Known about the structure:
Blueprint: E1 4-8, E2 12-18, H1 31-50, E3 54-65, E4 73-83, E5 87-95, E6 101-113
Amino acid sequence: MGVEYLEASPERVVGRMPVKGNTQPYGLLHGGASCVLAESVGSVGAALTAGEGRIAVGIEISATHHRSATEGFVTAVATRVHGGRTLATYEIAISDDQDRRVCTARLTCMLRDAPIS
């Protein structure tokens, strides 16, 4: 997928992904690729919220696709809207290189103690 992270904290995670290689047959950014990017950046934020010795597990994602992207990169900004002891929710805005909104997603992760190995 080619996701790279540009910034990461429990409150905000920024990542980007190339459109090339993540398209559907018509040459447009695949909606599933947008969801992968959204879940990737949101899950990193949730894992940072969970803290050491805990894990984040995605339990719900929704996405609205506003416009297509055919070249360049798309950048996702995940902003925490809730960070509790058992749940973390992020709103993720995905934009193209011209800063036009491509997708808006919302991810909720369950925060749990890490399994004992």
